Amino acid sequence: MARLFRRRRALLRPAGFDELGLRRALSDRMLPFLVAAMAFLAALALAGAVGAASLARHWREGAGASLTVQVPRGDAPASGQSGTRLAAVLALLRDTKGIREARALTDDELAELLRPWLGSGVERLSLPLPAVVQVRLADATAELGGLTPRLEAAAPGTLVENHGVWVGRLTALARSLQACAGMALIVVAAVAAAVIAVATRAGLAARREAIEIVHGLGATDSYIAARFAFRATRLAAAGGLVGAIAALPVLLELATLTAPFAGLQPDEGGQGGLGVLPPVLWLALPGLPLAAAAIGFLAAQGTVRRWLRRLP
């Protein structure tokens, strides 16, 4: 019977004939628009996850690979050796394995650091300020065991500020943002599948009589489900493409704004803002229409097959 139906369909159906009326059953306006909105949100969630990972990596490589050393009375003579306390600390730091650079901040740099808290009159302060040494490590994981006692011996009262606590907190924040972005992607995919399923169910209800007639003539469940799935896949892919294109200018603007926080420049690579967008997003954006098409196909197939099993 199914073979007879396929033969009749091949002989009698004109090219492009829509025997199930799917163009009326699944609108080519509302469904692509809703899928485009879901794809737009998915692109923003992906950008959030990639941006959080990039910032976390930059923080680990930046703040995690640096130390701040404060030397009170840096101009005072060092005990037991020639030179000042600051010079003794700098010599010790530069001779320590794992330290790439040790540089004392100038008075102007210290004033610039204190200006947000003390205002423009910071240069007129009569309080003695400690000398501050900025230390860059060769590697964020470099072990500097025993550095604090050696600094204390060279210049008593020297303080070493490790940024590991702040880096750990910022890394935890970045991971939380990535988890939220992943959950948002899951929710967006679930909502898109639900929207396609509802639209497919509405189309089935609208074309119930035609489907029952075709089904009674020998059309298989696979054939009817494939017809609906093909229509839903095309509409979902079109919506995903529109959503990805609409998200691109927004992502470029966000990437340009956040580039300085990740140690990049908007014109890096000579491509203007295009060079700032991470390569993973250039790969992910074309994948949004494919993902939308896959969701549309699976949601429509499952919905139609469940509906057909309830037919008498």
Question: What is the fold's blueprint, element by element?
Answer:
Elements: H1 2-12, H2 22-25, H3 30-62, E1 66-71, H4 85-94, E2 99-104, H5 107-118, E3 131-137, H6 147-154, E4 159-162, H7 164-206, H8 208-216, H9 221-258, H10 279-309
Main sheet makeup: 4 strands, antiparallel
Number of continuous helical runs: 10
Quick one: how many beta strands? 4
- Output the structural class: alpha+beta
Low-confidence runs (pLDDT<50, min 5 residues)?
Answer: 268-272
Strand and helix order = HHHEHEHEHEHHHH
Radius of gyration, whole Å: 32 Å
Mean pLDDT: 78
- Described by its quaternary structure, the protein is single chain
Q: What number of domains?
A: 2
Q: Quote the distance from N terminus to C terminus.
A: 18 Å
Q: Strand order across the biggest sheet?
A: 2-3-1-4
Structure description:
The protein has 312 residues and is an alpha+beta fold. The protein folds into two domains: 2-60 and 168-309, no CATH class; 73-157, no CATH class. Helices cover 64% and strands 7% of the residues. It is built from ten helices and four strands, in the order αααβαβαβαβαααα. It has a four-stranded antiparallel sheet, with helices on one face. Helix 3 runs antiparallel to helix 7 (164-206), helix 3 crosses helix 9 (221-258) and helix 9 (221-258) runs antiparallel to helix 10. The longest helix has 43 residues, at 164-206. The two termini are 18 Å apart.
